[in-house]
Amino acid sequence: MIRDKSATKPAKDAPKTAAEKKAAEKKAAEKKAAAKNAAPAKAAKAAAAKTNVTTAIPAGKKGIIAVTTPSFRRERALIKRGVWPVAGCDEAGRGPLAGPVVAAAVILDPNRIPRGIDDSKRLTAEEREKLFDKICATAQVSVAVASPSRIDRDNILRASLWALKRAVVALPEAPRHVFVDGRDRLDTECDCEAVIGGDGIVLSIAAASIIAKVTRDRLMCALAQDCPGYGFEQHKGYAVPEHLDALDRLGPTIHHRSFFAPVAAARAKHMPWTVEPVRDLFSVTEVEVQADASVEIDAAAGL
What we know:
The structure is a single chain. By secondary structure, the protein is an alpha/beta fold. Among the domains are: 73-225, Ribonuclease H-like superfamily/Ribonuclease H (Nucleotidyltransferase, domain 5), CATH 3.30.420; 231-274, no CATH class. The protein is 47% helix and 14% strand. The chain has 10 helices and 7 strands. The strands form 2 sheets. A 5-stranded mixed beta sheet has the order 5-4-3-6-7, sandwiched between helices. A two-stranded antiparallel sheet has the order 1-2. A hairpin with an 8-residue loop joins strand 3 (86-92) and strand 4. The longest helix is centred in the first third of the chain and has 35 residues, at 18-52. It starts with 17 loop residues before the first helix and ends with a helix. Residues 43-59 have low confidence and may be disordered.
């Protein structure tokens, strides 16, 4: 007779004795406790990731582009090497049709860095105003301005570099190293490092971008009171449709940059007497032909 033993055989995962059952319960409790303790660490990691990556822009099949917040890493590396003070500088107002270029330089206090500093373009006007006050209260700050007349004389790039250098020189304490936003280094007495996209990478440059932006915005609001009708308080001098329409209706002011194309066109329309005619170098007039002929005849007679 064959006895079927499958009915009395215990399940594979079931404990065979009370001791084994107790051990299994203890193991399950430990696993649950470990998962509970890992939750805060996981949340902290997610918060850190959220802090370091503020924006993710879809880029189709090529993945995403992560935009990180600026950090104090480069400045701290220099401090560890004994290099201090370290300044960051940036400008605001290269692109507008009117108003000055404003440059700012900032030396942050490593022990009193305001929270929330970022590239000024990523912040709202209210956030910039609050950070402006905090940076001025805790850091060394200087500002320099390149007027529209200097921009007309030197061109926008040279005027911007001039203002940036003036801002660095005007700092209360001379820096030993300077970070500047862009690809052009400054002719300073200390070491200067150009960082492309620096206002989104280096914290000192980001702080300078806020100081420069807020200062220029305030200047443009003041100019709006002297030049009503242009809307400087709204667009801050940039080439938006409202500004272009005002230029066409009212003509340029002394605060406009004369050689920027829309301003030059408005000046030709409203003040044509100020526009010097451009001579065609390839045209030949009858007087010039006669003069050249007489010179050739005199030369022949002399021979």
